[in-house]
Amino acid sequence: MGKSIALFGAGGKMGVRLSKNLMGSSYEVRHVEVGEVGRKRLKDELGIACCSVDDALKNVDVVILAVPDTLIGRLAAEIAPKLSAGTMVMTLDAAAPFAGHLPKRDDLVYFVAHPCHPTIFSPEVHTPGAPDYFGGVTAPQSIVSALMQGPEEAFALGEDIAKTIYQPILRSYRVTVEQMALLEPGLSETVCATLLDVMREAMDEVVSRGVPAEAARDFLLGHMTILSAVIFKQIPGQFSDACNKAITFGKPRLMRDDWKQVFDKQEIADSIERIT
User: Buried b / exposed e across 176-207, counting CB within 10 Å, b at 16+?
Assistant: First the structure.
């Protein structure tokens, strides 16, 4: 048996995904779930029984906190006194570590791992009958990992666990916690999710002006595919003069001149404070 893992929040939406991918691995997994619904889900779906916090933490090598960002600080503070020096604490998001919510224990290893999710060009995302939009099932995805504190040799263990819980893996990248915060919430949520939500609002607007709803949806999603393929250089190609002129006019009409300040350190910190 390999290293032992205490998985907190094992019965939650993310915890079940991790539990499933850890099954059959070399890791000895101890599942912790306080919610009755989550405990039942683990038992019914995966045949997994949960254990107590004390049993899970006894001589454990790694603790994974698969719980919401708002709970990370409190939970980490509660379990830290029960952890031996050298124990790895892994979070699945950079928000709480970036905000300083992990206990001040220099003798613990802090590791953060986050999925990139499958790209929109991955054929497995659109598998008939079993699409995998999130990743971790059939569609390969890349991951980003950060060793926040601890000896350099600890990175290999953290990365291997990350590759296991987020499999199948396309590529694995090493970043810092600060860089991961730029990626999320900065790039993925503040920018990407916001602009996608604006695009959905724009679709609703043309529908309100008389365009049939299904036609508007098909038109927008279809153009998202081909425009993304060109913009992100998935395929060779270039836009027409008309499209380039629309972008030249549209960008200042839609975006503030200073929009890139969302990536400034204080802006990222403020965003994470709201999240956590």
Answer: ebeebbbbbbbeeebeeeeeeeeeeeebeeee
Q: At what angle do helices 213-231 and 194-208 cross, to 10 degrees?
A: 140
| Residues 109, 86 contacting (CB under 8 angstroms) | yes
Please report the DSSP string for 163-212 in residue order. HHHTPSEEEEEE--HHHHHIIIIIIIIIIIIHHHHHHHHHHHHHHHTT--
Instruction: Establish how many alpha carbons lie within 13 A of residue 52's alpha carbon, considering only the half-sphere containing its beta carbon.
Output: 3
pLDDT tens profile 27-50: 999 999 999 999 999 999 999 999
C-alpha span between 9 and 165 (Å, rounded) = 14
pLDDT one-digit tens code per residue, 127-159: 888 899 999 999 999 999 999 999 999 999 999
Displacement of CA 70 from its chain's centroid (Å): 15
- Distance separating alpha carbons of residues 274 and 276, to the nearest angstrom: 6
pTM: 0.94
Alpha-carbon gap, residue 273 to 98, rounded angstroms: 10
Would you state the torsion angle of the CA atoms of residues 151, 155, 156, 161, taken in this order, to the nearest 10 degrees?
130
